[in-house]
Give the backbone structure.
Amino acid sequence: MSTPTEGPLVSVVMPAFNAASFLADSVASVAAQTHRAVELLIVDDGSSDNTVRVAEEFAARDQRVRVIRSPRHVGTSAARNLALDAMRGDYVCFLDADDAFLPHKIEMQLAFLRANPSYGLVFSDVYHSYANLQPIRLHRTGVPPLSFHELLTVRNWFTPIVPLLTRSLVRSVGPFDENLVPAEDWDYWIRCAQVTSFGYLPGPVAIYREHPHQTSRQSDRIRIAQERLIDKHFGRTQRIYARARAARHLSAARHSKRQPLVVFRELARFARAVPGWRDVPMLLRVVE
């Protein structure tokens, strides 16, 4: 990485917990950005491996890398919040320490937001990859068939590594909810949608690495966090609350194809929870 050059400064927020084996790839993907005016904030989240040493080696070689250390393991949301408090950029994006950006990610999305100032957030597409970052498939995020206000009552739409946000949006929305890991990003997008419009820029901008230890594979934690999110945002409106719970059961059924008893149980719960059969076609269309 080199000295910052002209253009708006973009802050890249990277929480890192025991990520020493992946960190070099993630940092290299920031170094390779065609938009050079970036700062990379690596937050060591109380790691017990060599994450701190690897991160500080990068910081010693490049003034654009800053290392923020948490004295204990505080979780993804709290780690991101530490970086958001320290950021200096006009724009913000998030990169987990086991994922990677494509070289044009920031340049393309930054150009979109500058050309479309009515949007506070732009999202794009993402590759899923093996542990060695070899792509498996392209996930075309696309424009949802519903408004984001309605869509986000039943599901998340994109992973945190996909969007670029304006600083003003980040300051308006406030910190990540530290009680909702690993559904904190869904909660964050709900709050973003309350204050701004989202723009879609087609094309892949990042690589989501699939490996056995990632948080997205921890189904019990996800279920508990999603239930808390539903209670937090939708508990005041009976129909929306029921639809959100039905969507969670439908999603659980679809992710349990190799467990017929679980599928049957979740579909039964879906049928009991859905507020009306007119909601079923929409849920079948948008819930993963």
User: Anything to note?
Assistant: Residues 235-286 form one domain.
